[in-house]
Amino acid sequence: MAKRSSSNRSLIAVLAVYALFLVLQFFPPNIPFLKEIVGQRIYLHLLIALLSVIACLIGGGTLSRDLMLRSFRFRHVPAALFLWASAAILMELILDLLCRILPGLSAAGSTATGALLGEGLLSAILLYALLPAVCEELLFRGYMLSTLRRSFSVGMSSLLCGALFAVAHTVPVRMVPMLLLGFFLSLAGCYSGSVFIPMLMHFINNLCVVLSANYPAEAAAVRGFVFGWGDFAALLMAVAAGFMGIILLRGKPGFKR
């Protein structure tokens, strides 16, 4: 009974903060002088980071524990690269399958990626790669994952956190791949015990999207190299990369139940 009560409290706390996050996304408070200083997009992400800190402090926790602001081991860096590579290949396979089944989704994905071309390269890297990686991970893999992990298993907390992450990315074509990415990011957070590892994975993922939009020929060449042997070979590469990532991350989860 006590265990179930603890699980319910953790889930309620996470859902309450998630609801506030959605409100901030669609109805952000208007602080004109701050918007003018940092710009609209930076302003919105700063609100996400601030929400993470406030939720942590209200819960009586510490930033190092409840936002996973901890150091990591050197082996966690290549682990992050392997896990991201696995997730990226699987996401591409899922996207390709979804677009074959529902061709209309392809246009939605192209529109979202096309928005990146309106920014200069360095500006796009800051606004669409670095900033979301830091601020979103503080909320999802920092506060939410650490809260869920105290009451749920690694697999369940990673799945719940990944689902919330996916729903937050409201473009339909991205939801299923984002669920997979969110799950991998959460696994990396659980087993490294540090939010900086999923931050790195998130940044690499978004950086590749930015670079693909700005250098389509080079992106097509890389995609041809990975998928040129067929979908089954690409799937095997994803499994191998994921296996290597898990091996490097193996050990006790970063949170005690």
Offer a quick outline of the entry.
This protein is mainly α and 257 residues long.
Plain-language structure description:
The protein is mainly α and 257 residues long. It has helices at 2-26, 32-38, 40-58, 63-66, 76-101, 104-114, 121-149, 154-168, 172-192, 196-214, 216-227, 231-249. The protein has one domain (2-249). Helix content is 81%, strand content 0%. α2 (32-38) packs across α3 (40-58). The relative contact order is 0.16.
Q: How many DSSP E strands?
A: 0
Topology as a string of helices (H) and strands (E): HHHHHHHHHHHH
Span of the ends, CA to CA: 15 Å
What percentage of residues falls in helices of 4 or more residues?
over 70%
Write down the overall geometry.
globular
Strand count, sense and closure of the main sheet?
A: none
The radius of gyration is 18 Å
The structural domain count equals: 1
Mean pLDDT rating: 86
**What is the number of helical segments per DSSP (H or I, 4+ residues)?**
12
Strand content: under 5%
**Unreliable spans:** none
User: Structural class, judged by helices and strands?
Assistant: mainly alpha
What key attributes describe this structure?
257 residues, mainly alpha
Topology:
Elements (H helix, E strand, L loop, with lengths): L1 H25 L5 H7 L1 H19 L4 H4 L9 H26 L2 H11 L6 H29 L4 H15 L3 H21 L3 H19 L1 H12 L3 H19 L8
Helix pairs in contact: 1-3, 1-7, 2-3, 3-7, 5-9, 5-10, 5-12, 7-8, 7-9, 7-10, 8-9, 9-10, 10-11
